[in-house]
Design goal:
heterodimer, B: mainly beta, six-stranded mixed beta sheet, three-stranded antiparallel beta sheet, 9 strands, 44% strand
């Protein structure tokens, strides 16, 4: 069974760093793009970008370029999303999602990680 | 880049059909056959309903169908059921090699 399991909710202060994770199982982790999607409270979905764990090819959405960093550890089938200095406006639920193997749609999603940034 | 344009809300009675539109530009919806539709119920992760304009993943009801004309894609749900009540988002590949979502449409089943 394909699964993407994300790390748990986080409460951070502005200026702190954070790295959240998305662990894939039940499929070949290195052969599928992984996307990161932001959903601010009560708002819609926003594409942050995608990473190919096989070679760590990364494409950031222009709105998020320079604001976050994607990475992946093939050895443990895990993708990461990290911030070096959080802002209150980073408060949101973050989802990872797997791209279909040969088509452009994202078929499996993690359960979401709620990040709360507050002083 | 700007989000794709969707109606904020649509509604229909059980058994009826509804259509949700998704309007973009020639740099996204109109330029590629890479439009997807996602269903999101409250407090849940999105679920893929349609990919590449009109393809249904296995397990998705054939009451859901997608199409595209020019810069506008559409999701049609026929035989509306109470369980279809959710938010629906379109997404398109874009010329910047990333993707963009629509603003979302809240479907109410009356």
């Amino acid at each position: 069974e394909v699964q993407l399991v994300q790390s748990g909710a986080e409460v951070k202060k502005p200026g702190e760093s954070l790295k959240i994770s998305c662990k894939g199982s039940g499929y070949s982790f290195t052969n599928h793009w992984i996307a990161w999607v932001r959903q601010m409270p009560g708002k819609g979905l926003e594409w942050m970008g995608i990473i190919y764990p096989g070679d760590s090819d990364i494409k950031y959405s222009p709105s998020f370029q320079g604001q976050v960093t994607f990475s992946a550890d093939k050895s443990i089938s895990t993708a990461y999303l990290q911030w070096s200095s959080l802002k209150a406006s980073d408060t949101a639920t973050y989802y990872c999602a797997r791209r279909l193997p040969t088509a452009k749609g994202f078929d499996y999603w993690g359960q979401g990680t709620l990040v709360t940034v507050s002083s | 880049q700007s989000a794709l344009t969707q109606p904020a809300s649509v509604s229909g009675s059980p058994g009826q059909s509804i259509t949700i539109s998704c309007t973009g530009t020639s740099s996204d919806v109109g330029g590629y056959n890479y439009v997807s539709w996602y269903q999101q119920r409250p407090g849940k992760a999105p679920k893929l309903m349609i990919y590449e304009v009109s393809n249904r993943p296995s397990g998705v009801s054939n009451r859901f169908s997608g199409s595209k004309s020019g810069n506008t894609a559409s999701l049609t749900i026929s035989g509306l059921q109470a369980e279809d009540e959710a938010d629906y988002y379109c997404s398109s590949y874009t010329s910047t090699t990333t993707r963009v979502f629509g603003g979302g449409t809240k479907l109410t089943v009356l």
